[in-house]
């Protein structure tokens, strides 16, 4: 979390304070954006868009202590806009897990934990497709839980939700992913569809 002095400076239009906020908040926003887009280049674009919007609308931040949830809300809205406008620049599906793994390792995090088989057992294409069936909010929650390895209460704080709501959304999202991946495996999956397209 950015220091309150920097947040107050940012609210008053201090460019140096804003730069320090960008430096501190960018890594977490970028990791979340990669999870949401499956595309590191698009994630960089989204994070840049978040900070452009934040600067333009900084007077809308009423409580300096709520900077991080406010930035995450801007990212979720920017992601929705990205999806509506079709900004998606897909990385080759086979490369997606490698990109995510490099990203999480670079930031000192680990891939989804061993306690959950969904991310571990699915191939990259099927997992990316399954994640797309979730709402942007549910994708963000899973990204923070498994991409950033945050506890439920910290996710709730960042997204301005109740911890119980976060836990419920995680449970339901994982069940939905499991169902989607099981159905996908039963119909030949993403790999077979990709092979059919290449014929």
TrEMBL record:
Tell me which Gene Ontology terms the entry assigns under biological process.
Answer: DNA-templated transcription initiation; response to stress
**What is the superkingdom listed in this entry's lineage?**
Bacteria
Query: Domain RNA polymerase sigma-70 region spans what residues?
Result: 21-89
- Keywords of this protein's UniProt record, alphabetized? DNA-binding, Sigma factor, Transcription, Transcription regulation
User: Where is the chain membrane-spanning?
Assistant: none
Keyword Nucleotide-binding on entry: no
Q: What GO MF terms are annotated?
A: DNA binding; sigma factor activity
Q: Which Pfam families match?
A: Sigma70_r2, Sigma70_r4_2
Q: What CDD domains does this protein map onto?
A: Sigma70_r4
Query: Where does the RNA polymerase sigma factor 70 region 4 type domain start and stop, copy by copy?
Result: 129-177
Record InterPro entries: RNA_pol_sigma-70-like (IPR039425), RNA_pol_sigma-70_dom (IPR014284), RNA_pol_sigma70_ECF_CS (IPR000838), RNA_pol_sigma70_r2 (IPR007627), RNA_pol_sigma70_r4_t2 (IPR013249), RNA_pol_sigma_r2 (IPR013325), RNA_pol_sigma_r3/r4-like (IPR013324), WH-like_DNA-bd_sf (IPR036388)
Give the PANTHER family listed for this entry: RNA POLYMERASE ECF-TYPE SIGMA FACTO (PTHR43133), RNA POLYMERASE SIGMA FACTOR HI_1459-RELATED (PTHR43133:SF8)
The entry assigns this protein to a family as follows: Belongs to the sigma-70 factor family. ECF subfamily.
- The name under which this protein is listed is RNA polymerase sigma factor
**Which organism does this record belong to?**
Alicyclobacillus macrosporangiidus
- Lineage of producing organism: Bacteria, Bacillati, Bacillota, Bacilli, Bacillales
